[in-house]
Write a structure and sequence with these properties.
Mean pLDDT: 92
Low-confidence stretches: none
Number of helices: 8
CATH architecture: 3-Layer(aba) Sandwich
Radius of gyration: 17 Å
Structural class: alpha/beta
CATH class: Alpha Beta
Helix content: 25-40%
Length: about 250
């Protein structure tokens, strides 16, 4: 019987990663998570109906932020062994400068975070795989509806630039000789515009590739977390999934 993968979560209080973490804990997967405020993470998991018993048994939380190399490295281990999989849902909170210019509270959070994760993972004797939650709007092929282009160009320009650099860092890492890599494989998940709510369910999620994206207006954060759990974590074998090495667009 295939052993369940262990999973480390970064950005675990964010909607997509939080939804994925909740499903993993409910299914009995051993997980670790980095959190600046562990009580906030605990409360969010309770809101998603994760039993206290599952949180206590399956979740290990390290208090700290993504700039703390030691805390990140600690999160990459469970019971003295490196995790099999990393899920990164890092992102900043939007704010407006001068009332009109859209930016983030931390405009480089995604690239900075992935740099720290890769640096920390470099010392793992067994290299993990990584799933990073990115965004549509980065592909050379149009992957958003025409009506959404002005929004993406203006409101989301800053976070998109950050995510472009984040993606490039992961791709560059995989181009290194195998013995020098910090990771064993990657998947970039590119959801369309994220919304709150219960979601539409796995059967309604449309998937695409960088060459042939799935084009749509929105997807719920819970559906993104659901897709990552069902299509990546909850598989017979972590290494045999069809999406590794790809940029997968998700929408409904």
């Amino acid at each position: 019987m295939q052993q369940q993968p262990t999973v480390a979560f970064f950005g675990a209080t964010g909607g997509c990663a939080n939804a994925c973490l909740a499903l993993a804990l409910q299914a009995g997967y051993h997980c670790s998570a980095l959190a600046r405020t562990p009580s906030k993470l605990h409360n969010l998991l309770q809101q998603l109906n994760v039993p206290e018993s599952a949180i206590a048994k399956y979740l290990t939380v390290t208090e700290g932020d993504i700039y703390d190399h030691e805390a990140v490295q600690k999160t990459l281990y469970l019971d003295g062994r490196p995790v099999d999989l990393i899920v990164s849902g890092l992102g900043g909170k939007p704010r407006f400068e001068y009332g009109i210019k859209a930016t983030l509270d931390n405009p480089t959070i995604c690239q900075d975070g992935v740099r720290t994760i890769l640096s920390a993972a470099r010392s793992c004797p067994q290299k993990p795989r990584i799933v990073i939650i990115s965004t549509t709007g980065l592909s050379d092929t149009r992957d958003v509806p025409l009506l959404m282009l002005p929004l993406y160009h203006w409101l989301l320009k800053v976070p998109h630039e950050d995510k472009k650099v984040m993606e490039k860092l992961v791709e560059t890492e995989m181009q290194k000789p195998e013995e020098e890599r910090a990771i064993d494989g990657y998947l970039m998940v590119r959801p369309s515009l994220l919304v709150n709510g219960d979601g539409d369910g796995l059967s309604k999620i449309k998937t695409g590739t960088d060459e042939k994206p799935a084009v749509g207006y929105y997807i719920s954060r819970r559906d993104v977390g659901l897709w990552i759990f069902e299509r990546i974590i909850h598989q017979a074998s972590l290494t045999e999934g069809q999406y590794w090495g790809q940029k997968v667009s998700l929408t409904v």
